[in-house]
Amino acid sequence: MGIYQRFPVSDHIFVDNSDSYWYYYNPVREIDFSKTCNERSQVNTFRLSPQCWNDSVETFVARIEENIYMVRIALYSEDPKLEHILSSVLGKEFQVHLESTEDGINRLLSAGGCDVAVLDLDSNHNSLEERIACCRRLVKSRISSVVMADDALRATAAELVRLGAHSYCRKPPSIRDLKALLHRAHEGLSRQRNPSPAQEQLEEASRCDQMIGSSLQMQQVYDLVHRVANLNASVLVTGESGTGKELIARAIHNLGSRSGRPFVAVCCGAIPETLIEAELFGHEKGAFTGTVGMREGYLEQAGDGTLLLDEIGELSPATQVKLLRVLQQREFSRLGSSRLIPLRARIIFATHADLSELVALGKFRLDLFYRINVVKVHAPPLQERVEDIPQIAMHFLRQYSEMYQKLVEDIEPGAMSLLQGYSWPGNVRELENVIQRALIVASGESICEKDLPLNIQSESVLNIGDYQPANSFERQLRDYKVKLAVSAVRDNHGNKTLAARSLNISRAYLHRLIRLAEHDPLVEQEGFDLETA
Fold first, then answer.
1. Single pTM value for the model
2. Integer distance in angstroms from the first to the last C-alpha of the chain?
């Protein structure tokens, strides 16, 4: 017929009719579809038969958009009844495709035939271990997936979420919660496929492997991690407990050429001194009393991968000597054997102790210290990077809201201020536990101040300054805190970071105390010098 018209639907969607066919095209979506009536396959356009000529443009567009915005679910299950139930209760905005085998689900995913995968785990399944292993492989392939499992497999579902699954829901699921999870998984996939330039820059700047934070301190850590990832140099990771030293070691491993090899983490302080050598080097049968066979040590188990020796300062002097020889000769032998085994693994060391101080006290060998301290990466305490707290807190909130199936999606500004004003002696690990606890006790869809532990609420001075009675307990407590803060700044010659560290509080909390001191006549009477603050 030679008729050609283009009907704009939106900025990114338009419809053509030409030669008795309607065409639909959406350039934003990487995978477009051909459609003859209500069927569709993978090509670049929708194509409808001439019967659609009788439709108005609006009716036609509504019909098209009803299909194009449908969330396509790949259901990995052996229960056909489940497909029928989900298709009925989820409604027209979802389209469910059942696949019962690993090959079938892989074909569907590789062909782009689904947006979100639902992995059905049933504790009564005949080959449950194989099913779980397949789900692990699917999750590691970075598909957007929701795990559906009964209570007996809750721990397995949580593990799959940690491996990369978007979320977990109980079986049988709440339809309202399941719809919300599927929509969020689909939206996350869309952002991942088509991230905005600003989003890409933000994510690149605020993450490094599994580490989170965009502060200057973390940027310096990210830079060092990238510099040493592909080098075989010894790396010493230092920092307080709970700051994420193992995450730094994993990032070095994952971003380097050894990423496909084993990563073995060992806490030297958790192994008795009598067993540490057997654990590190391995032993032959009969090497000492109680051995029943040969065992590979951690140095051997790491293979061509990475071995993290955490709390290296806890090693005994005798073990330090043997470890030094291993590092020098790049070989070792199992206990009870004289056969030398080449050291192929890269070793990363970590400690929360000051090794230079242990060297001065004679508790750590100086030559071993020089051997392991080639590149030093310091994990900053959380109180020195207060600006990272909102991002880290929201990460844990999303993680545990999906794990516990509670739709808590935000942290109120007042509660966030309390989090940023706390000193965090337990660092990120403590923050994770606080968010987990707050989510459990939260009664609404956001975490508020009353959901936080009392010690976090009591440390903040945001509201203490409102108390006016001069002789009240709160006023005396506030005055005492202010005097401590000003005195600490003076004793540290105006260095607020050192002053905050000496009081075991955050730098932001110290600043609030100092601001109170600047307007407090009692402090001026005491003769404190605020100029250095």
1. 0.56
2. 83
Q: Which of 189, 183, 187 is nearest to 164 (CA)?
A: 189
- Helical packing angle, 216-228 and 245-254, nearest 10°: 40
The C-alpha atoms of residue 127 and residue 133 are separated, in whole angstroms, by 10
Phi, psi values for residue 285, rounded to 5°: -60, 130
- The strand pair at 33-36 and 39-42 is best described as antiparallel
Helices then strands, counting H and E runs in the chain, come out as 22, 24
Q: Give 282-336 pLDDT, tens digit per residue.
A: 888 877 776 677 888 899 999 999 999 999 999 999 999 999 999 999 999 988 8
Q: Are strands 331-332 and 375-378 parallel, antiparallel or unpaired?
A: unpaired
Burial class (CB in 10 A: 0-12, 13-18, 19+), 303: middle
Task: Establish how many alpha carbons lie within 13 A of residue 10's alpha carbon, considering only the half-sphere containing its beta carbon.
Answer: 9
Q: What is the CA radius of gyration of the chain?
A: 30
Residues of the chain with pLDDT under 70: 1-69, 113, 188-207, 290-291, 459-475, 517-533
DSSP for residue 242: T
Q: What sign does the CA torsion over 154, 159, 161, 165 have?
A: negative
User: How many Cα neighbours within 13 Å face the side chain of 235?
Assistant: 28
Instruction: Record the tokens describing residue 359, joined without a space.
Output: 């060297």
Q: What is the pLDDT of residue 260?
A: 82
C-alpha to C-alpha distance for 205 and 213, rounded to whole angstroms? 8
Angle between helices 427-441 and 389-404 (to 10 degrees): 50
> What pLDDT is recorded for position 341?
92
Dist. CA 348–CA 236, nearest whole Å: 6
Q: How far apart are CA 18 and CA 35, in angstroms?
A: 15
Listed residue (81, 83, 134, 80) closest to 109, CA to CA: 134
Instruction: Give 205-233 as a DSSP string.
Output: HHEETTEE--SHHHHHHHHHHHHHTT---
Question: Which tokens go with 95?
Answer: 């389209």
Residue 521's pLDDT is what?
47
Nearest to 246 by CA among 66, 429, 81, 95: 429
Closest of 467, 238, 221 to residue 373, by C-alpha:
238
pLDDT tens digits along 76-116: 888 888 888 888 888 777 888 888 888 888 888 777 767 88
pLDDT computed for residue 532 by the predictor: 40
Give, in degrees to the nearest 5, the angle at Cα 329 between 325 and 330: 105
Report how far residue 44's alpha carbon sits from residue 24's, in angstroms, rounded to the nearest whole number. 9
- Helical axes 389-404 vs 413-421, angle rounded to 10°: 120
CB-CB neighbours of 142 under 10 Å: 10
User: Residue 398: phi, psi to the nearest 5?
Assistant: -65, -40
According to DSSP, the residues that pair with 108 across neighbouring strands are none
pLDDT of residue 96: 84
Describe the strand order of the beta sheet including 167-170 as a list of residue ranges. Answer: 94-99, 71-76, 116-121, 145-149, 167-170
Three-class SS state of 429: helix
